[in-house]
């Protein structure tokens, strides 16, 4: 009877392995020492890595990444859930680790040479004494859905004409940076930018040419706002805005001058302009160190007042507003 039971267990194990090998879901299994004991056909198709290359090793990371790092099954086997935030874009609550983990991540997939966004599940297998025997990791290719989601998010935050951030993005950015710079005690600067005599440009050349002009101006502005954390946005109509966190007034003025010059050298013809024969910008700059007594609305209003001064002084220039009182 004991022999029969042992044979039944052996047959059952072999059947389970064969079943897992032919699952349509890409799946691999690690033993308690994190060695690959199963690498199914679907996993081969997804990764381009054959089972014979990986079985018995702990090199499964090579199928997904171009440098050594833990996969979700490793994290579960090691109990190192503190790594989740660093390694995965999204993941389940680490406290559920004994029940399994879920995560999503971009993987570079070196063998198939294409970047995939994978939804990953890792589940533990324990013996009757609660000792970990293996970890099963399953994978799902969510690249198409993720790219579609990113496209929708991009539409939500970008201006449809110019490709810069839209007004909603600016509103959210200026509020967040006001709070951040207030907490850090660091300066925050804003540039308000207006295309000079743009109504006359539209009336002379038509709205199609006007749109092309705004696109060219936006591209020139964006090319000068390249520091991580800065934001260039379309404020509305022919107005643009730039948010410069951690930026002193003199540095903000330098950015404003670069932007003004970048559009000037485009030399976009503007025969109807009252001040120049090509498209130019007027720019207002304002800076402050945020504190409890002020608001980001006050900062934007100061930049708007400086912009008005630039226009009143003859356009195609940068005007520096008074530093907003703290």
TrEMBL record:
Residues 102-154 form the PAC domain. PROSITE patterns: GGDEF (PS50887), PAC (PS50113), PAS (PS50112). This is diguanylate cyclase. Gene3D superfamilies: 3.30.70.270, PAS domain. Residues 12-58 form the PAS domain. Residues 186-323 form the GGDEF domain. GO terms for biological process: cell adhesion involved in single-species biofilm formation; negative regulation of bacterial-type flagellum-dependent cell motility. It catalyses: 2 GTP = 3',3'-c-di-GMP + 2 diphosphate. Pfam families: GGDEF, PAS_9. NCBIfam families: GGDEF. InterPro entries: Diguanylate_Cyclase, GGDEF_dom, Nucleotide_cyclase, PAS, PAS-assoc_C, PAS-like_dom_sf, Rev_trsase/Diguanyl_cyclase. Its EC number is 2.7.7.65. One of its GO terms (cellular component) is plasma membrane. One of its GO terms (molecular function) is diguanylate cyclase activity.
């Amino acid at each position: 009877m004991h022999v029969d039971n042992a044979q039944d267990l052996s047959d059952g194990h072999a059947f389970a392995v064969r079943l897992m090998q032919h699952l349509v879901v890409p799946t691999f299994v690690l033993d308690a020492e994190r060695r690959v004991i199963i690498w199914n056909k679907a996993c081969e198709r997804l990764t381009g890595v054959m089972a014979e290359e990986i079985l018995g090793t702990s090199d499964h990371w090579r199928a997904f990444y171009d440098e050594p790092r833990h996969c979700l099954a490793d994290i579960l086997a090691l109990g190192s859930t503190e790594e989740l935030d660093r390694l995965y874009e999204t993941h389940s609550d680490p406290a559920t680790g004994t029940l399994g983990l879920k995560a999503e991540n971009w993987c570079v997939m070196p063998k198939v040479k294409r970047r995939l966004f994978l939804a990953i599940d890792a589940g533990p297998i324990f013996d009757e004494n609660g000792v970990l025997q293996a970890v099963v990791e399953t994978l799902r290719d969510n690249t198409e859905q993720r790219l579609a989601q990113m496209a929708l998010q991009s539409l939500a935050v970008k201006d449809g004409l110019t490709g810069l951030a839209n007004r909603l993005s600016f509103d959210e950015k200026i509020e967040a940076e006001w709070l951040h710079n207030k907490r850090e005690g660091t300066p925050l600067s804003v540039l308000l930018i207006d295309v000079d005599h743009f109504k006359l440009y539209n009336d002379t050349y038509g709205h199609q040419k006007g749109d092309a002009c705004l696109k060219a101006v936006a591209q020139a502005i964006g090319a000068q706002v390249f520091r991580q954390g800065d934001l260039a946005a379309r404020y509305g109509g022919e107005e643009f805005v730039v948010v410069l966190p951690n930026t002193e007034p003199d540095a903000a003025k330098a950015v404003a001058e670069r932007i003004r010059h970048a559009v000037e050298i485009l030399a976009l013809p503007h025969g109807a302009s009252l001040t120049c024969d090509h498209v130019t910008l007027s720019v207002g700059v304002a800076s402050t160190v945020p504190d409890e007594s002020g608001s980001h609305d006050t900062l934007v209003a100061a930049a708007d007042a400086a912009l008005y001064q630039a226009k009143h002084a003859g356009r195609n220039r940068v005007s520096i507003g008074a530093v907003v009182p703290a």
